[in-house]
Design goal:
heterodimer; A: 133 residues; Heat Shock Protein 90; five-stranded antiparallel β-sheet; 4 helices; 5 strands; globular; B: 307 residues; alpha+beta; Methyltransferase, Methionine Synthase (B12-binding Domains), Chain A, domain 1; Phosphatase 2c, domain 1; 10 strands; disordered C terminus; binds adenosine-5'-diphosphate; binds magnesium ion
Chain lengths: 133, 307
């Protein structure tokens, strides 16, 4: 079993804990400061969405090592209302916050792989990966 | 050397030159670097990191706190980096849309093309200048086997792409009218049913349809709320409104249109237009119908008919 650790998102301070966890793992893996900032920003956005729209959920961080390539995987998981129209929310400029945050499209750009699974009424699971270059 | 390394080298050179001697020359280098960064998609957070690394190299004894402050700045700049990337992708999308609209405008142009009939008894001219890339105005001529000439002119209320799409529909509805149904009132009644049935309820179309029969020199016409045209009577040298009453197309599918008739004498002139003309802004405001008449009269006096 590969390294994995998890932060429960219940209140706003848990977003900070998730960021911290992500940063620590990113540092351990040898990501530079720019990539660390990208990873933590993506974690922040996903954790904040859980806090705002799902009420609660979790963010897990996984170390990856596939074919000699190492990477960091974020899994943001909740049992909230889900996202009706995924295509729509992935469009630039769609955010309800008026484009002030990175939003989901921003988080996607900060990472290398980005995948959303969401079932309305059941919840949302977002998996995002950054590879070490 | 890859682009990034090359950029880092350039940044290092320009920064150390500037720190040695604060002159405008080095700052100008900075501006050039800024352009290059944008060209090669280097984001603000990367520039800050580059800056910090350079400082560490140039001044190894710099206080740790100063260096730490750049990590904070980097975090603050993340949002700008994202906004920058979003801007890039929106720009790209906008470019694509523009290209698509250009193609659509060409397609529309071909679709709406109409041939101006050439018969001895009449002199006909037409011009349409789109307010935007896609035209919401439309005119069309048809000539039947009895040498009768039909002229339709329509305007969609609302401009832009939806209006233009709507026009293409009118054109196809006109093309599919049966040969014997070219009486102006029945043309408008058929089109009204098509529009009422097919077009978004928020969209209305004004239309004028006229039919000229060279055998009895009778011009019959009907209007669906269209901007009134003008009639020039050569015998008296006067203009009058070509008034016709009728509801816009698409309001009520049971609308009936009244047909009017006018005997056309040698040298007379019929002028049809869309409200694009009267809505057209000049330096002193909108062109009014009256002013338009004044200009028309001037043109008529200057250019006498050739007969
Ligand atoms: N975990 C989630 N559960 C339910 N809905 C979500 C979740 N994450 C995002 N959304 C929906 O997607 C929209 C877009 O999210 P995002 O791109 O982060 O922009 P913003 O949060 O600024 O609105 C949100 O407004 C919300 O409706
Ligand atoms: Mg959000």
């Amino acid at each position: 079993m590969e390294f994995q650790s998890c932060v429960k998102i219940i209140n706003e301070w848990d977003i900070v804990a998730a960021r911290q966890l992500g940063r620590n793992v990113a540092k351990e893996l040898g990501f530079g400061t720019v990539d660390q900032a990208r990873i933590t920003t993506a974690i922040s956005e996903l954790a904040r969405n859980i806090y705002l729209y799902a009420g609660q959920g979790s963010v897990s961080i996984e170390k990856l090592n596939i074919n000699g390539k190492s990477g960091l995987k974020i899994i943001a998981d909740d049992q909230g209302p889900g996202i009706e129209d995924i295509r729509r929310v992935m469009e630039d400029g769609y955010t309800t916050s008026g484009g002030l945050g990175a939003g989901l499209p921003g988080a996607k750009r900060l990472m290398d792989d980005f995948d959303i699974e969401s079932i309305p009424g059941e919840g949302t699971k977002i998996i995002a990966t950054k590879w070490l270059r | 050397m890859d682009i990034r390394e090359n950029m880092e080298k350039k940044y290092h050179e320009a920064l150390s030159t500037y720190l040695k001697d604060q002159n405008e020359q080095a700052l100008y280098q900075g501006q050039k670097i800024s352009r290059l960064h944008i060209k090669y998609n280097i984001s603000p957070e990367e520039i800050i990191s580059m800056h910090k690394n350079n400082l560490m190299e140039l001044y190894p004894e710099l206080p740790g706190k100063v260096l730490d402050s750049f990590d904070f700045l980097l975090e603050v700049m993340m949002g700008y980096g994202i906004a920058y990337r979003e801007h890039q992708s929106l720009r790209h999308q906008q470019q694509e849309l523009k290209t698509e609209i250009e193609i659509a405008a060409n397609v529309q142009h071909t679709l709406l093309e109409t041939e101006i009939p050439d018969i001895k008894a009449l002199e006909i001219g037409a011009i349409s200048v789109p307010a935007r890339q896609m035209n919401g105005d439309y005119y069309h001529f048809v000539q039947d086997e009895n040498e009768r000439i039909g002229v339709g002119i329509a305007d969609v209320i609302g401009k832009g792409i939806p209006a233009a799409l709507c026009m293409s529909m009118i054109k196809y509805a006109m093309d599919s009218l049966p040969e014997h149904r070219h009486e102006p009132n029945s043309v408008l009644e058929s089109l009204n049913r098509v529009v009422e049935h097919n077009v978004d309820p928020s969209m209305f179309i004004t239309m004028f349809y006229g039919l000229y029969d060279p055998h009895d020199r009778l011009f019959s016409y009907a209007s669906a709320g269209h901007e009134p045209g003008f009639y020039y009577d050569a015998a008296t040298g006067t203009f009058s409104d070509l008034d016709a009453k009728g509801l816009l197309l698409g309001v009520d599918k049971k609308t009936r249109y009244r047909q009017y008739e006018k005997k056309v004498n040698r040298g007379d002139m019929i002028i049809l237009l869309s409200d694009g003309v009267t809505e057209c802004r000049t330096n002193d405001g909108f062109i009014e119908g009256k002013r338009l008449l004044v200009s028309l009269k001037r043109i008529c006096i200057c250019k006498p008919r050739k007969w």
